[in-house]
Amino acid sequence: xxxxxxxxxxxxxxxxxxxxxxxxxxxxxxxxxxxxxxxxxxxxxxxxxxxxxxxxxxxxxxxxxxxxxxxxxxxxxxxxxxxxxxxxxxxxxxxxxxxxxxxxxxxxxxxxxxxxxxxxxxxxxxxxxxxxxxxxxxxxx
Length: 141
Known about the structure:
Blueprint: H1 2-21, E1 31-32, H2 33-36, E2 47-57, E3 60-67, H3 69-75, E4 85-89, E5 100-115, E6 118-135
Parallel strand pairs: 1-2, 4-6
Antiparallel strand pairs: 2-3, 2-5, 3-4, 5-6
């Protein structure tokens, strides 16, 4: 009887550990765009951010814009946000589609952006890893 109880306890403990650890590709410590919007550059080093892709730069689709996930879902529109954080991905993984909720890992850098007025140096979040969590378009209807 003691062996059966011990086996059940170990099985439950193992299940709790497996569920509690979660997926390394979707960290629970991702910061929402809303968490950093007041002063994004004050967050230094490598960060993981969570947001929704609301569109890309017309001349370079590696540059896209993230909006706070909760804000997009609340207003049911990917065009309603006050803050759209520019990010750039120079890797080889497929880029997220519009309305994809993503966790992106990277750090702040600068980028030379070609505009009608010439070259402009902009602060941009440089992504080293993209993790597409889901497409939220169905939640917006």
